[in-house]
Design goal:
This protein has 784 residues and is an alpha/beta fold. The chain contains 30 helices and 21 strands. Helix 14 runs parallel beside helix 16.
Length: 784
């Protein structure tokens, strides 16, 4: 205090605020932390004005730092505010997000307008995002799609919420994605794609996204630790688009080795993905070790109990997977190394996906073996993470129902402690496993809507049946029903089904389907129009009336045949009258002043489906002409069929989500060298066409109605076929189906190896082309 008093006393020569400063001695210099001692150790006096200058600078610096810290605190952007700025930047400054106090961790949101602002309250950011989406849907008539390039057009005046809205989630968990989605939609995605999808998931209330990007980088480190060489590890992995099937232990080594640059880039990408998912209130589902190992590990561990599993999907034995018996001591060691390495890179939310026998035959079908295997697998997770929970696909119980009897399922599920294993009831629009297994024998489960296989393009689904099944499950599915979700394999079609499924989680009971459909039509158009509502009512009542099946698609996408199908996929199976769909198309086209992106997407999707259905009628007429050996008629129908293919391709080219060029360009963009770019393009071409395998069993499984693919791949196959059949008729010889099949296979392999360019940007006006093609084909279709 004496020191301070001496500083404050005396003549005011210069000052800092109200503090006078005159002369400082060594005592005062020590106080302010400045040591003024010369080399000989002699204290000296100094000019106090210099110290004042130093103090001024220090205080100015502290002042500016405090302002900066205050500004950072005062203007900090929360994750939900950042989402609003990305999705609705024009409205974001007038949206206030507030934390709502709730009991029992119930997910809830409320909406109300106050003082010219929209106030969205919720128990967490995820619920707030659902509230924002509800406002966009029901007050702004806006549909936010899962594609980042789809423009969102908002009303010029921000709509008011006249009466407070409050919604509560009926289930705590909302699951999204499928291992296969990473093959058929997302293998080439960059952060900008993922950022938008995560926003979409938050807006739709997804709380449990399957997050399996980047795991090969973790496995690379693990397998290297266990003695494998760089070449052995990278060759064990498949090509990028096939990694989901490698992760599920279906295949290994196909289209490898995987480049190092892929591992590094995906590792970085996954860190961004899980960070953003967690910021928005989601629980990323990361993988755990389920038993799939490289065969080379047996060199270092010759006593390990390893089973080579059966070949899968038409592949020969060299691509079959190897399964390490869970009872082998090595299993626990690998689990430990993997989970610890993964947690170090990505953190953990303690829920792990593991599917040891997906579409595969386990080493033993004995219930005791299955129970012991489940017990050991779970305990291997729990020893590393005491909070571990297991997420298991129930798909295999549907797919191999003849093998997975209730006795075996019960043994497998009950071996895991109650509430520590959650089942994804994968394909509930077709078969609800919970009904067959006493609600999964008490373990928690999530009711899931699948919707499509391989990203097949077809107007498919049954809104009314899905409504009835979901409502029944929510009311009668048992207390262990903990969520709803979607396990779609691709993003390209039928957004109406997924919008409905996730909104159902926040419904207050049975949905008024007619009313819901009207509001869906409104936001697709961006306004209310009775004609457009009528079109969508017809779609829901007459077109969307059947569940999806594996291998569906229009006949154009199928291998050519005179009758029926040459291969099981694609199958153009429809249960409605194409004239009804034609009438829907007509109604949609005749809606006045319709320009929204969603509207253009609707008329394009309905249009290619109408025309694709018509292709089958023309094919049968060509066949009839062949049976009569009427070459002139055959040539005329060939011309009509090829023109139809070109017209459909032209229509598809107007849509950014229906472009082969975009798929290939995104694949090439991943590559660091020309060789890598070519490798990725081949992988991208192969997965949507020949797929792979010695028997080509999965050929065209992931067929797509995309511009470029329709004309250049499917169109070329049909042209070869028509020419072959016409030549046979002209020369009075029998059609050699076996020889022609080989010709088609040779063409497919040639096409996959090409690097020719296709447009990656939309071309043409959707409405104008739809109007042109309707006028061109309507009379033909009416007479079919």
């Amino acid at each position: 205090m004496d020191t301070i008093e001496k500083v404050l006393s005396g003549h005011h020569e210069r000052g800092i605020g109200n503090v006078p400063v005159k002369v400082f001695t060594c005592e005062y210099k020590r106080y302010i932390g400045i040591k003024l001692v010369d080399r000989n150790g002699i204290n000296s006096e100094f000019d106090g004005r210099r110290v004042c200058d130093i103090w001024k600078r220090v205080i100015r610096l502290l002042f500016f730092i405090s302002i900066l810290l205050y500004s950072t605190w005062a203007f900090a952007i929360t994750p939900i505010e950042s989402l609003a700025k990305r999705i609705v930047p024009a409205y974001a400054p007038r949206i206030v997000f507030q934390k709502a106090d709730v009991q029992n961790n119930t997910d809830i949101f409320t909406l109300q307008s106050k003082s010219g602002k929209l106030v969205i309250s919720g128990n967490n950011y995820n619920s707030m995002a659902v509230g924002l989406n509800y406002y966009l849907k029901y007050y702004c008539q806006v549909h936010v799609s899962w594609y980042k390039d789809d423009v969102i057009v908002l009303p010029s005046t921000m709509p008011l919420v006249e009466e407070k809205v409050s919604k509560t989630a009926r289930v705590p968990n909302r699951f999204f994605l499928n291992y296969c989605t990473y093959a058929y939609s997302m293998p080439w995605w960059r952060w900008s794609d993922w950022e938008h999808l995560i926003d979409w998931m938050a807006l739709n209330g997804v709380t449990m996204p399957l997050s399996i990007t980047g795991q090969e980088a973790i496995w690379y480190k693990v397998w290297k630790k266990f003695g494998l060489t760089d070449q052995q590890v990278c060759s064990y992995f498949t090509g990028p688009a096939y990694l989901p099937f490698h992760r599920m232990a279906n295949i290994e080594k196909w289209d490898g080795p995987l480049p190092h640059s892929w591992l590094e880039d995906q590792l970085k990408l996954q860190k961004k993905i899980v960070k953003r998912e967690r910021e928005l209130g989601m629980t990323p589902i990361l993988p755990a070790f389920a038993g799939h190992i490289p065969s080379e590990i047996q060199v270092m561990y010759p006593n390990a109990k390893v089973t080579k599993l059966d070949a899968w999907g038409g592949f020969n034995k060299q691509y079959a997977s190897h399964f390490l018996d869970p009872f082998d001591p090595l299993f626990e060691k690998i689990q430990k190394e993997f989970l610890e390495a993964q947690t170090k890179e990505f953190g953990t939310n303690h829920i792990y996906g593991a599917d040891p026998f997906n579409e595969l035959t386990p080493p033993s079908w004995e219930p005791s073996y299955l129970a012991s295997a489940a017990d050991v697998i779970f305990k291997s997770m729990q020893k590393v993470d005491p909070k571990a929970e297991w997420l298991q696909m129930a798909w295999v119980f549907f797919y191999m129902r003849d093998k997975w009897t209730n006795e075996r399922i019960k043994a497998f599920l009950r071996a895991v402690p109650q509430d520590k294993m959650t089942l994804l009831d994968y394909y509930c629009e077709q078969t609800e496993i919970w009904k067959l297994t006493e609600s999964h024998f008490g373990q928690p489960y999530i009711w899931c809507y699948l919707g499509n296989f391989g990203g097949n393009c077809l107007l498919i689904g049954n809104l009314k049946e899905v409504e009835n099944r979901m409502e029944n499950a929510l009311n009668n599915g048992g207390k262990n029903l903990t969520g709803i979700g979607s396990t779609l394999e691709g993003f390209d079609v039928n957004p109406v089904m997924y919008d409905y499924v996730f909104e159902k989680a926040w419904s207050e009971g049975k949905t008024d389907m007619a009313g819901w459909t009207d509001r869906w039509a409104d936001r697709r158009l961006g306004r209310t129009d009775e004609k457009y509502r009528d079109a969508w009512q017809t779609l829901v009542n007459k077109i969307y009336t059947q569940p999806t099946e594996a291998g569906l698609g229009i006949l154009i996408n199928a291998k050519p045949a005179l009758k029926g199908l040459a291969h099981w996929a694609p199958n153009p199976k429809i249960t409605y009258n194409n004239k009804d769909l034609l009438n829907v198309w007509s109604t949609m086209i005749n809606v006045a002043n319709a320009h929204s992106k969603s509207y253009n997407s609707d008329i394009a999707n309905v249009g290619w489906q109408v025309l694709g259905n018509h292709f089958g009628v023309l094919r049968d007429k060509f066949t009839s002409a062949y049976e009569r050996r009427n070459i002139e008629e055959m040539q005329r129908y060939k011309k009509q069929l090829m023109t139809l293919i070109s017209d459909i391709d032209r229509l598809l080219a107007t849509q950014p989500s229906m472009l082969l060029g975009k798929w290939l360009e995104d694949a090439r963009a991943i590559g660091k060298t020309e060789a890598e770019k070519d490798y990725y393009e081949k992988d991208a071409r192969m997965i949507i066409t020949v797929w792979g395998g010695e028997t080509r069993f999965l050929n065209d499984y992931a067929s797509r109605s995309w511009a470029g693919l329709t004309k250049d791949f499917y169109g070329k196959r049909w042209e070869m076929f028509f020419d072959e059949i016409i030549d046979c008729a002209r020369n009075n010889k029998d059609f050699d189906g076996k020889a022609f099949t080989q010709k088609i296979s040779d063409f497919e392999d040639w096409w996959v190896a090409q690097t020719n360019k296709f447009s990656a940007t939309p071309t043409g006006n959707t409405y104008n082309i739809c109007k042109e093609l309707f006028d061109k084909y309507a009379r033909q279709i009416q007479s079919d």
